[in-house]
């Protein structure tokens, strides 16, 4: 049921202040843990490893000695300059290493590593490392107010459960290994209890990557939709998107743009060093536009955004579409801790009649989505 009464808001606020009083510093906890061992090992040599290396180097600073993977094709190779060792080699240093799991299915990896005798097996939450800086600066009462306001606009019990899992994960070191797995659901961007698709949808896919979401959308609608407008600024991803769209039978109704979305039109830099193409950082160059300008004469029924932390700016650049057409929204809120309250509250401000939902779609800290429906 919605958390929409003063008592509930006060309870949330008091709980958050209580957790903040512990003054947890996740960044420092990771530093302290890494310093206790001769070796630091990241387990899993895929996208999550690639995504987290830059954050680790910037905020933790401790050398990553090895990565490890069960895939024998990866053994002996280097990933971002880090040598991959086999699980057998890992067992040779099992008492002298802290292992951080960089695989989406954490529990399976945890059980495997425990089973081969690794003593220190740990979760690693990239965005919580960054959030530690904000938690050090912000006043507890101010943060509690933001979060209690957010909890107050959530429209169902599952949203509150997801919200509480995130708060407990960030603030409480005893929140448990499965804190996010316990609220993980399938159907990212299209949860069946929230999103009902018609035969005449016009989807905006912000951060279209290689077309994975639009392919899922086309499958779910059985190809019965009006239009898809796909925006992808990264050139490599855009080339993959273009090739994949060419193979789709609905390609004549799919318009692709090698552009980012923002709150104004301009040239901008972005980073391609990791899996996150972060706007405003790095040496790559791209162009960004507002959805209000790019699609000002188009019908829009659904907006999805996963744009590496630029979601607030892109929402501001789509405020006219959102206010006038009231499309379904699926907006990622996991890239920056502030987005947990900034995005739901801004959406509610734009269209007060929106119902706000939260859903989470991985076992780790990635892929928390704010959904809005009228």
Keywords:
single chain, about 375 residues, alpha/beta, Rossmann fold, seven-stranded mixed sheet, six-stranded mixed sheet, 16 strands, about 40% helix, disordered N terminus
Task: Report on the architecture of this protein.
Helix content is 39%, strand content 19%. The strands form three sheets. A seven-stranded mixed β-sheet has the order 9-8-7-13-14-16-15, sandwiched between helices. A six-stranded mixed β-sheet has the order 3-4-2-1-5-6. It has a three-stranded mixed β-sheet with strand order 10-12-11. α1 (6-20) packs antiparallel against α7 (140-153) and α7 crosses α14 (339-350). The radius of gyration is 21 Å and the shape is globular. By secondary structure, the chain is of the alpha/beta class. It has a domain at 26-128: Rossmann fold (3-Layer(aba) Sandwich), CATH 3.40.50.20. The chain is built from 14 helices and 16 strands. The relative contact order is 0.12.
């Amino acid at each position: 049921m919605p958390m929409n009464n003063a008592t509930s808001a006060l309870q949330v606020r008091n709980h958050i202040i209580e957790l903040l009083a512990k003054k947890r510093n996740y960044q420092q906890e990771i530093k302290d843990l890494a310093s206790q061992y001769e070796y630091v090992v990241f387990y899993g040599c895929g996208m999550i490893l690639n995504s987290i290396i830059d954050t680790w180097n910037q905020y933790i600073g401790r050398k990553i000695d090895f990565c490890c993977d069960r895939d024998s094709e990866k053994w002996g190779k280097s990933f971002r300059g880090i040598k991959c060792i086999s699980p057998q080699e890992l067992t040779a240093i099992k008492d002298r290493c802290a292992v951080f799991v960089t695989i989406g299915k954490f529990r399976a990896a945890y059980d495997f590593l425990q089973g081969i005798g690794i003593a220190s097996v740990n979760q690693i939450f990239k965005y919580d490392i960054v959030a530690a800086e904000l938690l050090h600066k912000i006043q507890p009462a101010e943060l509690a107010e933001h979060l209690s306001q957010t909890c107050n606009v959530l429209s169902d019990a599952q949203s509150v459960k997801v919200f509480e899992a995130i708060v407990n994960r960030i603030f409480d070191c005893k929140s448990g290994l499965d804190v996010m797995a316990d609220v993980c659901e399938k159907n990212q961007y299209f949860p069946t209890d929230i999103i009902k698709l018609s035969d005449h949808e016009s989807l905006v896919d912000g951060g279209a990557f290689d077309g994975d979401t639009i392919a899922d959308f086309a499958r779910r609608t059985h190809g019965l939709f009006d239009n898809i407008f796909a925006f992808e600024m990264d050139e490599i991803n855009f080339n993959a998107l273009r090739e994949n769209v060419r193979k789709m039978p609905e390609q004549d109704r799919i318009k692709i743009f090698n552009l980012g979305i923002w709150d104004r039109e301009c040239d901008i830099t972005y980073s391609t060093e990791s899996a996150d193409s972060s706007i405003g950082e790095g040496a790559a160059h791209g162009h960004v536009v507002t959805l209000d300008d790019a699609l000002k004469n188009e019908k829009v029924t659904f907006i999805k955004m996963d744009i590496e932390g630029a979601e607030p700016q892109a929402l501001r650049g789509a405020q006219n579409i959102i206010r006038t057409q009231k499309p379904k929204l699926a907006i990622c809120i996991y890239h920056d801790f502030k987005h947990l309250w900034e995005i739901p509250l801004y959406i509610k401000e734009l269209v007060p009649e929106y119902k706000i939902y939260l859903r989470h779609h991985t076992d780790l800290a990635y892929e928390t989505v704010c959904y809005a429906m009228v």
